[in-house]
Amino acid sequence: MLNASVPGEPTARTVPLLSVVIPIYNEQEALPLTVERLRPILDGLEVEYEVVGVDDGSTDATPVLMQKIRQDWPEFRTVRFARNSGHQAALTAGIHRAFGDYVVSIDADLQDPPEKIPEMLSLAREQSLDIVYGVRGDRGTDTFFKRRTAGTYYWLMRKLVGKRMPNQAGDYRLLSRAAVDALKAMPEHQPVYRLLVPWLGFPSGEVVYTREERVAGSTHYPLSKMVRLALDSVTNFSASPLRLATWLGLLSFFVCIAMAVYTTVAYALGSTVPGWSSLFIGMLFIGAVQLICTGLLGEYVGRIYSAVQARPAYFVGYDSAEDDGSAEPRRAASHVG
């Protein structure tokens, strides 16, 4: 929504109370259904809002579809990457470019119900919370394998980060402007918000919901990306794997001592039959430990190398907000409360 402007001066935009960020990649089937379900909910709030759709380099009809949606829905804002950069990069761009006093992130597949957004906003305003997590109370629509791997992921992350990380909380959350500004100030090259947001320690609450089936299309988070997310989560947020390498090295040292004692005793008893099996197993064990330790060190060295390069995580090719005049709106303090 725009303010009246003086002729010849750039148009100033008022700050919306709420921004809804949607990372989008090849969602030509799901996006219309998402808009059909989301728009009445946001209109019913009777507050100024914007929806920031971040196109992560889609290769189907999604970009054209987003432009059509924007024509019919002025509050829908499109941000388009120059190339595919990944879900977390799209989420970062949406959060960093959102104008609202409160920012909600939600995926375009409708597995996280948008009907919970009013509850999140109400809870944040009534209790002066900076973060409201969407917590999955029921994952019955997921496969057994997905539930088990997700459970293992959250268990491991809570061990590394602590109980500040809510169990079964994904990227469906509300952030206040203070939390968004704190995240923008973080020098993370590859942020994992599931860990970074709880680390802030800001006042938070939870909204529980039932996870639904994907509304259309196929998942964009196969096993390989889930493993990548887990690896990024661990290596970006904890040095524990390096300590694991140390413990594995100590374990291999004691195994070697035990093998040396066993060999000495066998020689003293005269039963020094060629010990090919024990020697072979020992060599395999030591070699495996060395490779694991080298691999763990390589992960961290690779991230240091990436950070030193300081390459941007994404390139924005287009932002429809720039078509409306000033890309940075005037902020009114009276919005938050």
TrEMBL record:
GO-annotated cellular components: plasma membrane
Subcellular location: Membrane
Keyword flag Transferase: yes
Entry's transmembrane regions: 247-269, 275-297
Occurrences of domain Glycosyltransferase 2-like (ranges): 19-181
One Pfam family it belongs to: Glycos_transf_2
Keywords for this protein: Glycosyltransferase, Membrane, Transferase, Transmembrane, Transmembrane helix
InterPro entries: Glyco_trans_2-like (IPR001173), Glycosyltransferase_2 (IPR050256), Nucleotide-diphossugar_trans (IPR029044)
GO terms assigned for molecular function: glycosyltransferase activity
Membrane topology label: Multi-pass membrane protein
Family according to the record: Belongs to the glycosyltransferase 2 family.
Name recorded for this polypeptide: Glycosyltransferase family 2 protein
Organism, scientific name: Streptomyces kaniharaensis
Lineage, opening ranks: Bacteria, Bacillati, Actinomycetota, Actinomycetes, Kitasatosporales
